[in-house]
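Illustration: Flap endonuclease 1.
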Amino acid sequence: MGLAEIRELIKPVIKEVDLSYLSGKIVALDAFNALYQFLAAIRQPDGTPLKDSKGRITSHLSGLFYRNKNLIENGIKLIYVFDGRHPEFKKKEQELREEQRKKMEEKYEIAKEAGEKNLKKYAEFTSKLDYNMIDEAKELLKAMGVPYIQAPSEGEAEAAYLVKKNIADFVGSQDYDSLLFGGTRVVRNITISGKRKIRGVEVNISPEIIELKDVLNYLNLNQEKLIILALVVGTDYNPDGIKGIGIKKAYEIVKKYDDPEKIFNYINWDKYYDISWKELEKFFLDPPVVDINKEDIKFGEIDEEKIRKILIDNHDFSEERVNKSIEELKKSYKQGSQKNLLSFFQNG
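Result:
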């Protein structure tokens, strides 16, 4: 989406941290965002995703199990938030993504026939989630003792709500539009941090912390103005933005006019969109969410046999590696409980 350009403006307030910084914190992860990252990153050298003996994709399950285990070992508590029904005005963005995916599939096949070696750079953009993959991901999370929430609409909106309500400490997402939904604290790169190969070069990716208050203070904008800035350059609901206006120009326009009507008249919004900008702004400020209380969230209730059934019996994962990881997961939860108990007595 266009708001990715905002990074150029807010670099000074983005904090790079070690994974240990998040120890003891609760992160509400945008589930689809994380699953697509696993599907993109966990692939064979020829670009094909991991598959079981029946040809079913397992990259997302591998990511969920082993990456979540790693995060839990680092003392991080996770809540996955799944998208519900997307608003009708997101249809164009979904069509664009599907079009881009098909184009990359074509490029991948052409590169494969030509004998190119680095096929992963094409293949990672061809990922697609289906309902069976989503359902099984939920089953695995539950078996691992990682709670998940089914949002009524956008997962990021629900995750932002959890942070605003102090149920979670951070929204975990790569997308900056978490800020538009009022996510007060956002962490990026949590599911991909560590050493990674990007275009054949090994780099170290660290988590990044972005606080909404820092963004608003640095840009000297309020929440409504930040949303307006995003609408000018493009969001998931108006992906094209306004032709010829980049993030710097958009920022100048938003700063120049106090009256939003003047901004949208100036950029000739009605020429590009049938939907009212006010409707989109309202959606960001007051999206559909399901009300959740802290006591509704349960961490660490592991179902070992269910994990084995999903990964080993159903999808041919290594029995030795899965069993070892289950023991490590149990140990991590136990250590986390002991730390919480110790903290209770020290603070009491």
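Reading the tokens back as a structure: Confidence is low (pLDDT under 50) at residues 340-348.
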